[in-house]
Write a structure and sequence with these properties.
The complex is a heterodimer of chains A (703) and B (822). Chain A is mainly α. Helices cover 70% and strands 1% of the residues of chain A. Chain A has helices at 2-15, 17-29, 34-50, 97-100, 116-141, 143-169, 189-202, 205-219, 233-255, 264-272, 276-296, 300-312, 314-318, 321-337, 340-356, 358-376, 385-400, 403-427, 430-436, 439-455, 462-478, 485-502, 509-516, 541-544, 547-568, 574-591, 595-621, 629-634, 637-642, 646-686, 695-699; strands at residues 185-187, 228-230. Chain A has a two-stranded parallel sheet. The longest helix of chain A is centred in the C-terminal third of the chain and has 41 residues, at 646-686. The two termini of chain A are 45 Å apart. Chain B is mainly α and 822 residues long. Chain B is 65% helix and 0% strand. Chain B has 36 helices and two strands. Chain B has a two-stranded antiparallel sheet with strand order 1-2. In chain B, a hairpin with a 5-residue loop joins strand 1 (98-99) and strand 2. In chain B, helix 26 packs antiparallel against helix 27 and helix 30 (625-641) packs antiparallel against helix 33 (720-727). The longest helix of chain B has 51 residues, at 771-821. Chain B is flat. The chains are: A mainly alpha (703), B mainly alpha (822). Chains A and B meet through helix 5, helix 6, helix 9, helix 12 and helix 15 of A and helix 29, helix 31, helix 34, helix 35 and helix 36 of B. Chain B: It is found in: Nucleus, Nucleolus. Chain B: Residues 407-427 have a biased composition (Basic and acidic residues). Chain B: Belongs to the CBF/MAK21 family. Chain B: Residues 389-427 are annotated as: Disordered.
Chain lengths: 703, 822
């Protein structure tokens, strides 16, 4: 077994370089497969725990090795999917006159790709010519030598074929014994265009077969040569483009299916149709080749195009469950890692798979994309916040398709999070703290918070929401220090968004106001406003001392309080709600020495006081008592939307500014990245507080 | 002569079969001893000797005291016999029984032993059961030694064989000799210890040897020696205090047995003395610190009645505030055990310990670890000692009070204190001598003696407490610049707890000062905060809350007999509520304050109650669910008690007849009586019913209906503390209950497709990739791939050609060979 694996690896190294490249790329982002078993173990453990007893605290001791995404891993069991059904070479009518046409003209490089390989190849070629000449001279000089060489190579070949036998038994490489392997037919533009014409106009099946074979060869080009040989890029492009854009239509026409029909029932219909038996290998050949192409190519635009075309013929893919699984797997990885266009194209496929092909596929899709999302979150600093947002939103979209099931999933996931948090609260161990204060954990919460916010209007998600709020409270309670300011800000934002989407009351004022009382050694002066607070969870120490940190704190306090107050600004108990925050803000105003901050606070206080006065005046007029809930709830509700008082405008202004700022920051991020790095480097050179600028520390890993 | 005395003592009316305890405590005995103090000395002298007499002889004595002692002797011998019998089944050392104070024997079973030995290996913990630990240490050591011995025997055999063969190995042997010496010392220790335990009287001299071994240079040996000595001493130390015979007594003629006994006792005592001295000396070295402290603590806990207790106690108290957690915990545990098991030493050790701690606090200017005061919480004062005690306590505290008052006026009251102390000590000393003699005879305790000791303890405890309180009141600059801002008053919290616990024992005359002190402390933060924000004088909110709580406890414990106005504390508390911060301050303290100050308050001040209700309602809008629950429970309590306050629940358009002088509510007022809360309406409840926590929202709606529902009978509700604890985050089980999953139903629209439509994707709109672009990219891709394959092909060929070229050399050689052969 080991030997076989080694062989296979060697083979891959030799022949599948681009795949290897891809693998390397994705490996960095995905958890290695080897850890999957472990994950499964955890999952089964958790399954036991969550089961009937609903997870008493006893389980907390094995929390340590529980991973956050264990809940989702259940869908990943079918890893070792069968590659057994081959996309074998389709036998052609060799009598076909069009194939026999031989183009003898060896077309030399008429196009030059500006790759480094051209130069390299030239050099090697020159070298080769020299050596060959030398060898020939030797051979001429000594004819016995050529005999000796022949016998030598023969012996080597025997040994090679002998060892090759292992390889052949490998189902993955069964293309080796393809009958068409040996004969390489060169392809030209004219042949291809002729075939295309035949297929589109006359619906010639044998031409289609040839086309498919050529397409297959094109898709496998570079990895191994099967059947056809491409002379130049034109033919290659033509065949790929033609097949990708037209194959779906061709097949649909053959099966007489409308292009809009994309329901699940269509598959059954398809399978029952008489033509299915004949055409099945053709369809399969096309799909497998396309999938292969997906794994082969690295360029995002080709991938995106292929994706969209594959999405169109999803119906056919569904007829082959194993292919569908492979497609989902490939798509998910592209979705997670790809650029914007590719990612959205991939998501469209995932969504279609999930919606059209029933709950089973929905399950696997949700599991896989959640795992992929969390895997992407396993970084110390979020660089591409927008992409992660996109990923999160698409998961939420997918989950919203079946809120019932996904809320069950969410409940499981959140109880997992809760257990980890409980473990952390009880033991206060360093590992626990690290595990909780990680983007993986935070993004998981973020995901469910958004999910709840999106769906709480239409569904009863109260238990889920309650749990989530408790976890968030626990998080804010556990990480109270100024270094965890970004995390706290996130907690407050979550609570606010949950509160505003569901209409329930969640007290956040104390969390917000605590930010004002951070005990930081004031240093002031140096302003380093290049630092983006939202990209980390734990701030570096040097930042705490800067003036901009103080400003950032106050700004977010005012923002968050504005969100909170804006929500309840017309509630009958607003004056009481604002009372304690007002007291503490006034105190802060007295203490603070910075004129700028003081002015901001003053303005905020004034506006809130106006609001308080307004409500107080209005409620003095009402006749009902606090226990009359209905009247209390309807208090000022009519005015709420149309209110044009200065304070509401103020809140709105603050919120707008905040959203603009965050947008700006998102855009600024990528630009500032190199500069920031440079700055760090400079500081390190200077040797200012080496420890503070330690990269890991800056990323917020170290405690 | 001795016999004569015994006859006098013998009470004729007592039947001989009465239990020894009854007789010991009988008043007549006490009376008799009190009356004939001079004779009591003889009695005690006689005892020590007669023990030996009667133990060695066949028992034929009727005297009760002697009988009891004799019985004890006998019991002590029995276990030894039994061990010998058991020796076949169980290893004798492992099977050694533990004897508790009341003379019961506990035999260990073998499996239990093994388990314990394992658990013992981690030496760090085990603060609670020193007895066990030490026993186990011994056991473990034995096991180890046995193994080592076996190995050594094997080694020795091998070596014997080897030496016969080669003498070169001598050098190796020399190297090994150091190790061997160590080994042999270990055996020696083990053997001596075994022998001592088996028959202490005949082997008593080997104590000296063990002591010598424990002075070895090797650390392991020293530790082992100290520990085995500890085990031995713990086992063989008698249940009485040894008093060496005076010269006069030594001149007298005595029997052989008595002589033997005297020798035994003096040897034991001198060895013990040396051991204790060694421990105390070694305690200064950091290497042996933990071992010696462990030994000292164990000894103190096990044999507090025995000689040299003072030295042990001094060492323990010296380390009670140690930075080393292990050492400190050990010391605290041993002092605790002294306080709890007063029967072992008759309370003397308690007095000494308390006085020493008081002295320590004084010398360190209150900058100690909180644990050192925390131990006072384990003191127990027997209140049933009767009236005389009270009068004496009164006396004491009167003295103290006058002293304290002086202290308040002029800070240097120490000389006065010192004088007092010396006098007290003198008295104690003289009495102690008498007492010791008496106690040795009877084990019973004089009531007045106990009273005296208790009052001494009390005075020392309160002296410490007041010292700490006064220290906390001092302005910052004087207090301490050593420890800095962090926990500037480390002792304050345990001290306040202690005052709260023992407040019923404080003299009434003294109460006013205490209250003043507490009042100042409670208001400490608010006063100084304007001046200096970061000063270390700034008490934390928890500490200030605790001050309020203690003030109320003191009042309550004295049945509200005091005429002190608690209004100030209410004002402080009213403002402290706003100062509270969830993460920083202890919510439990706040909940306790709510309970004691508001729920249990018997006074009915409507104005104040309304102010607190309003403030707590506002408070619960800002903070987490635990705090909210505690506040709401308190509100409910208050509303139940103050019927008129229920007006807050109704929006009375007229302003309300009950509203006081202040017509409008002042939310920012700092005095509850001036806030005019009666004029307000509890609108907060409306928002609280929307609270995310179901408990809070149901509680809020429950409160809001109290006004209309007229049923006066409310079922008992939980205390704020309970409510806080139940909903605090640590306690909260994050697990959902079973029914939640079922109730996970759709709320309004059940239409799946509808929601599907609603969340249509926004990604759809993104333009599809341009075909031309794709074509271009494909071309590039193709070229790249082709070049790569070409490259591979060329490389392959190149390799082959070079290989062929290389092969030519080989070919030539071969050819030459064949040529040569031919």
């Amino acid at each position: 077994m080991g030997k076989l694996g080694k062989k296979a690896r060697k083979f891959a190294k030799k022949n599948l370089q681009s795949v290897l490249k891809r693998n390397r790329k994705t490996k960095a982002l995905f958890k290695k497969k080897s850890s999957k078993d472990e994950q499964k173990d955890v999952e089964t453990q958790e399954g036991n725990a969550i089961g009937p007893s609903n997870g008493s605290i006893m389980v907390t001791d094995n929390i340590e090795d529980a991973s956050i995404d264990a809940v989702f891993a259940e869908g990943d069991k079918d890893e070792g999917e069968d590659g057994s059904d081959s996309d074998g070479y389709l036998s052609e009518d060799s009598s076909s006159p069009y194939v026999a046409e031989n183009v003898t003209g060896h077309i030399l490089e008429d196009e030059n790709a500006s790759s480094t390989y051209v130069e390299l190849n030239k050099n090697i070629h020159a070298d080769l010519v020299m050596k060959k000449k030398k060898l020939d001279r030797l051979k001429k000089k000594d004819p016995e030598f050529s005999k000796f060489l022949e016998s030598y190579y023969e012996s080597i070949q025997i040994a090679e074929t002998y060892s090759d036998e292992d390889e052949r038994s490998d189902p993955g490489q069964q293309d080796e014994d393809d009958p068409a392997k040996s004969e390489e037919k060169p392809l030209t533009d004219s042949i291809i265009s002729f075939w295309c014409k035949m297929v589109t106009e006359k619906h010639n099946q044998s031409a289609l077969i040839s086309l498919l074979n050529a397409y297959r060869a094109a898709c496998h080009f570079g990895a191994k040569t099967i059947g056809y040989k491409f002379q130049n890029s034109g033919g290659f492009c033509n065949i790929l483009m033609f097949m990708l854009s037209n194959a779906d239509d061709i097949f649909r026409r053959l099966f007489q299916l409308s292009s809009l029909n994309c329901r699940k029932e269509a598959i059954v219909e398809l399978k029952n149709s008489s033509k299915w038996k004949d055409l099945r290998p053709l369809v399969k050949c096309y799909l497998r080749s396309t999938l292969f192409l997906l794994n082969q190519v690295t360029d995002s635009e080709i991938l995106a195009f292929t994706m969209t075309r594959l999405g169109a013929s999803l119906l056919f893919v569904a007829a082959f469950p194993s292919l569908l699984h492979r497609l989902v797997k490939a798509t998910v990885s592209l979705w997670a890692t790809g650029a914007a266009v590719l990612s959205s194209a991939a998501f469209l496929i995932i969504r279609d798979v999930a919606t059209v092909f029933g709950s089973n596929y929905w399950n696997t899709c949700v599991s896989k994309i959640s795992v992929a999302y969390l895997a992407r979150s396993r970084v110390s600093e979020i660089v591409d916040a927008k992409h992660l947002q996109f990923l999160r939103d698409s998961i939420i979209q997918l989950c919203s398709l079946d809120v019932q099931k996904s809320s069950a999933k969410a409940l499981a996931s959140i109880s997992q999070l809760a257990k980890i948090l409980q473990w952390g609260l009880q033991t206060k161990k360093k590992e626990a703290v690290e595990k909780i204060c990680s983007w993986e954990y935070v993004n998981c919460i973020d995901l469910w918070v958004r999910f709840i916010s999106a769906n709480v209007h239409d569904y009863d998600l109260r238990p889920l929401m309650f749990m989530t709020i408790q976890i968030i409270n626990g998080l804010a309670y556990m990480f109270a220090g100024p270094r965890y300011f970004p995390l706290r800000l996130k907690c407050i934002q979550w609570l606010s968004s949950l509160s505003s989407s569901s209409g329930i009351f969640i007290p956040v004022a104390s969390f917000v106001l605590d930010v004002l009382e951070y005990k930081v050694v004031k240093e002031g002066g140096r302003s380093r406003n290049t630092f983006n607070v939202t990209s980390v969870l734990k701030l570096p120490k040097f930042y705490l001392k800067s003036q901009s940190f103080q400003e950032e704190c106050l700004l977010s306090v005012i923002e968050q309080l504005s969100v909170h107050f804006a929500q309840w600004s017309c509630h009958i108990s607003f004056p009481e709600l604002a009372a304690i925050p007002l007291i503490r803000l006034r105190k802060f105003q007295e203490i603070t020495t910075t004129e700028n901050l003081r002015r901001m606070v003053k303005r905020f206080i004034d506006q809130v006081e106006q609001n308080v006065d307004f409500i107080q005046r209005k409620r003095d007029e009402v006749p009902f008592s606090p226990n009359d809930y209905q009247s209390a709830d309807s208090f000022l509700q009519l005015e709420k939307s149309s209110l044009q008082t200065p304070f509401t405008q103020y809140y709105r202004g603050v919120l707008e500014k905040a959203s603009q700022k965050s947008l700006h920051e998102c855009g600024k991020m990528s630009l500032l990245e190199p500069r920031k790095l440079k700055r760090n480097k400079v500081e390190r050179k200077k040797g200012i507080a080496v420890k503070e600028n330690h990269p890991a520390d800056e990323n917020g890993i170290l405690g | 002569m001795g016999k004569k005395k015994q006859k006098v003592v013998l009470p004729p009316e007592l039947p001989p079969e009465v239990l020894e305890e009854d007789i010991e405590v009988s008043d007549e005995d006490l009376q008799f001893v009190n009356e004939n103090v001079d004779y009591a000395g003889f009695v005690s002298n006689l005892d020590t000797r007669s023990i030996t007499k009667h133990v060695t002889r066949v028992a034929d004595v009727k005297e009760d005291a002697l009988e009891s002692l004799y019985e004890k002797r006998l019991r002590k011998k029995q276990p030894n016999k039994e061990i010998e019998e058991n020796a076949i089944e169980v290893h004798p050392v492992d099977a050694l029984p533990v004897k508790t104070l009341d003379g019961k024997l506990y035999y260990r079973t073998v499996p239990k032993e093994i388990k314990k030995v394992e658990s013992e290996s981690n030496e760090g913990d085990a603060t609670g059961q020193d007895m066990n630990v030490v026993k186990l240490t011994k056991a473990e050591k034995w096991a180890k030694l046995k193994k080592l011995r076996k190995e050594a025997k094997k080694q020795a055999k091998e070596e014997v064989q080897q030496t016969s063969q080669a003498e070169v190995l001598d050098e190796v042997k020399k190297d090994l000799s150091a190790e061997e010496a160590n080994e042999s010392k270990k055996y020696k220790l083990a053997e001596l210890g075994m022998a001592l335990l088996a028959d202490p009287e005949s082997n008593i001299k080997s104590l000296r040897e063990m002591l010598e071994i424990s002075k070895d240079g090797n650390k392991a040996i020293v530790v082992l020696g100290l520990k085995s000595l500890l085990a031995v001493f713990k086992d063989i130390i008698p249940g009485y205090r040894i008093r060496l015979p005076t010269e006069k007594e030594q001149e007298m003629k005595v029997s052989k047995e008595v002589k033997k006994m005297r020798l035994y006792e003096s040897t034991l005592l001198s060895a013990y003395k040396a051991y204790v001295q060694r421990l105390i000396a070694i305690e200064q070295q950091t290497v042996y610190k933990r071992v010696s402290v462990r030994c000292i603590c164990t000894l103190l806990a096990a044999v507090p009645h025995f000689n040299f207790r003072e030295n042990l106690l001094a060492a323990v108290v010296r380390n009670i505030s140690s930075r080393d957690d292990v050492v400190r915990n050990l010391c605290c545990a041993s002092v605790k055990s002294l306080f709890i098991n007063e029967g072992k030493h008759g309370g003397e050790a308690t007095v000494e310990a308390v006085q020493m701690i008081a002295e320590l606090v004084k010398t360190h200017n209150c900058q100690l670890h909180p644990d050192s005061i925390q131990v006072f919480m384990f003191l127990s004062f027997d209140e049933d000692l009767g009236k005389p005690r009270v009068s004496e306590v009164d006396n004491k505290s009167k003295n103290k009070k006058s002293k304290k008052r002086k202290g308040f006026e002029e800070p240097n009251h120490l000389p006065d204190n010192g004088k007092k102390k010396t006098r007290q000590e003198m008295m104690t000393k003289t009495r102690e001598e008498v007492n010791a003699d008496f106690k040795a005879a009877s084990f019973s305790q004089d009531l007045s003696e106990r009273r005296r000791m208790q009052s001494q303890t009390l005075s020392a405890v309160f002296q410490t407490f007041f010292r700490i309180l006064k220290h906390a009141m001092k302005p910052t600059s004087e207090a301490s610049s050593l420890l800095g801002a962090s926990g500037s008053h480390p002792l304050l919290v345990p001290c306040l707890n202690g005052v709260g616990k023992f407040s019923h024992l404080i003299d009434l005359d003294f109460m006013a000062d205490l209250m003043n002190c507490l009042r100042k402390l409670a208001g400490n933060g608010s006063k100084s905060e304007d001046l200096s924000e970061n000063s270390s004088n700034y008490l934390t909110v928890s500490e200030r809350l605790l001050c309020c709580i203690v003030a109320f406890k003191v009042m309550r414990n004295n049945l509200d007999a005091l005429n002190v106005d608690l209004q100030d504390f209410f004002v402080q508390f009213y403002n402290l509520i706003l100062e509270y911060r969830p993460g920083r301050d202890q919510g439990e303290v706040l909940a306790e304050a709510l309970k004691i100050m508001l729920c249990d308050d018997r006074q009915h001040d409507m104005q104040r109650a309304a102010a607190f209700i309003k403030r707590l309602a506002t408070f619960s809008l800002c903070f987490g669910s635990a705090e909210s629950m505690a506040a709401l429970v308190t509100i409910k309590h208050l509303l139940q008690k103050n019927v008129k306050c229920r007006n807050l629940l109704e929006n009375d358009a007229g302003g309300g007849s009950v509203a006081g002088a202040i017509v409008k509510y002042q939310p920012y007022a700092s005095d509850p009586n001036l806030s005019g809360a009666l004029a307000s309406v509890l609108w907060e409840l409306n928002l609280l019913t929307k609270h995310y926590h179901p408990a809070v929202s149901t509680m809020a709606s429950g409160i809001s209906t109290m006004g209309t529902a007229n049923n006066q009978v409310y079922h008992s509700i939980v205390s704020p503390q309970q409510a806080f604890k139940e909903s605090s985050l640590e306690q909260e089980s994050f697990v959902v209950s079973g029914d939640i999953k079922r109730s996970n139903n759709k709320r309004k629209r059940g239409n799946d497709t509808l929601s599907c439509v609603k969340v249509q994707p926004d990604v759809n709109l993104k333009d599809q990739p341009n075909e031309n672009e794709v074509r271009k990219k494909l071309t590039e891709h193709f070229l790249l791939l082709r070049d790569i394959t070409e490259n591979q092909r060329l490389r392959g060929e190149l390799d082959q050609t070079t290989l062929s070229l290389n092969l030519y050399e080989q070919y030539k050689k071969q050819k030459r060979k064949t040529r040569k052969i031919s």
